[in-house]
UniProtKB/TrEMBL annotation:
Organism domain of life: Bacteria
Residue ranges constituting the GFO/IDH/MocA-like oxidoreductase domain according to the UniProt record: 133-247
InterPro entries (alphabetical): Gfo-Idh-MocA_inositol_DH (IPR050424), Gfo/Idh/MocA-like_OxRdtase_N (IPR000683), GFO_IDH_MocA-like_dom (IPR055170), NAD(P)-bd_dom_sf (IPR036291)
Organism of this sequence: Flaviflexus ciconiae
Name of protein: Gfo/Idh/MocA family oxidoreductase
Molecular function, one GO term: nucleotide binding
């Protein structure tokens, strides 16, 4: 079966997904594109050839009977109606992170999914498909080195645009570590603190960064996350998991090393598409395969909700000047067990 995908959101991330589906992955075709900017949707529809349709709203695309499954790559703040629309139409949906920007909206999505009685939503937490993170997780799950005690993360970007706000340090950037740490440890995060540090002179006037988030999980694992988005040199994601008898960390950039008269060096990745190209491909291919087999894959609405609940607590801590804030989670519905 060839899965017929409709894309909602034709910006950079949406177009990157189109490119991988058309040129690198198998088992799917793009049959429709939607965007509030109809011209952008038309341009995507034209670029994939065939009879792909262009729509000005997600609702019209979801209602198209030719669309089997929906890929959402709009801003997080506008995800909710389209995710719920896809659920109510009985269509699988892969939605870019965050699932939604408030815990209430995530709950509304879970309620719609539970009502429909079928797991249809996958949240685009692509790091779960990254080879190196998976190798570390296998060590953690294997138990050979004892339990995890702490984790050190660094999330560095070369620069961000003027439109990037202090809130986005948490709900757009750190949300990756929030999900990855829940997945890696198999535990919920129960409390969080947002520390501010000396402001980088490279940050624009309204952006208070870097910050360091400190999380604690149910069993007391301490996790820190440096979020530093104007570090100039590259897109650098670091993670070191400290167990009782060993520490495992991500390799550096996964690029080749060059040794010459200037010393040893490797190419720095410059953005998430560069660093996580393989993970994005694995994630979207696994979703296509699962849709073809009528099964769910990847992170669920519960994962999207739990990550957003941690974001809310971290934002509250940021507003309160760095006090520790407990994460408020509803009881996990059996549906997501
Ligand atoms: C962006 O949305 C991402 O997902 C990137 O991985 C992250 O590094 C960046 O800070 C975000 O804005």
């Amino acid at each position: 079966m060839t899965v017929k995908i409709g894309l909602i959101g034709c910006g950079g991330m949406g177009r990157a997904h189109i490119d991988r589906i058309v040129n690198e992955l198998s088992g799917a075709e793009i049959v429709a594109a939607a965007d509030v900017n109809l011209e952008a949707a038309q341009a995507v529809a034209d670029s994939v050839g065939g009879d792909a349709k262009a729509y000005g709203t997600g609702a019209e695309l979801i209602a198209d009977p030719n669309v089997d499954a929906v890929l959402i790559a709009t801003f997080g703040s506008v995800h909710t109606p389209d995710v719920i629309g896809a659920i109510e139409a009985g269509k699988y949906v892969l939605v870019e992170k965050p699932l939604a920007t408030t815990a209430e909206d995530c709950q509304a999505i879970m309620e719609a999914e539970v009502r429909g009685g079928k797991k249809l939503v996958t949240v685009g937490f692509m790091r779960r498909f990254d080879k190196a993170y998976n190798e570390i997780k296998a060590l953690v799950d294997g138990g050979e080195y004892g339990p995890v005690l702490m984790v050190h993360n660094r999330h560095r970007n070369p620069s961000v645009p003027e439109s990037y706000t202090s809130r986005m340090l948490i709900d757009d950037t750190a949300i990756h570590e929030i999900d990855t740490m829940r997945w890696m440890t198999g535990e919920e995060i129960v409390k969080v603190r947002t520390d501010s540090v000396r402001k980088s002179t490279r940050a624009h006037a309204k952006l208070e960064e870097p910050i360091v988030l400190v999380f604690y999980t149910e069993s007391g694992i301490r996790i820190d996350d440096e979020v530093n988005v104007n570090l100039e040199y590259g897109y650098s994601i670091e993670c070191e998991v400290v167990m009782e008898n060993a520490a495992a960390r991500l390799g550096d950039q996964e690029g080749i090393y060059v040794r010459d008269v200037h010393g040893d060096r490797n190419r720095m990745c410059q953005d998430h598409n560069d660093r996580f190209h393989g993970a994005f491909n694995a994630e979207v291919q696994s979703w296509i395969n699962a849709v073809a087999e009528d099964t769910h894959t990847g992170s669920s609405s519960w994962d999207g909700y739990a990550a957003t609940a941690v974001v809310d607590a971290a934002l509250a801590s940021q507003e309160q000047g760095g006090t520790e804030v407990e994460v408020e989670l509803i009881e996990k519905p059996d549906f997501y067990a």
